[in-house]
Specification:
The protein is of the alpha+beta class. The protein is built from two helices and four strands; from the N terminus they run E-H-E-H-E-E.
Length: 74
């Protein structure tokens, strides 16, 4: 299992979720992806995406306008 960190700050919706989805697609089951975005739409996008794809999300951390999520590829 590998851990990938993605800095998606400065990107506007839908680019952060698209970049995360592309990275997860390239990974293998059990890989962990930590992504940080400052786009206000990232949180609702990630919640909808994990619900749709079934990839487990272990948390959301909000620090000012930055939102960091951790997702494990199923």
């Amino acid at each position: 299992m590998a851990k990938t960190t993605l800095d998606l700050k400065g990107m506007s919706c839908p680019m952060p979720i698209m970049k995360l989805a592309a990275a997860v697609k390239k990974g293998v089951s059990g890989d962990v992806f930590e992504a940080t975005s400052d786009d206000a739409g990232f949180e609702p996008d990630i919640l909808a995406w994990v619900k749709e794809t079934g990839h487990p999300m272990s948390g959301i951390v909000k620090d000012g306008k930055n939102i960091t999520v951790t997702v494990t590829k199923k």
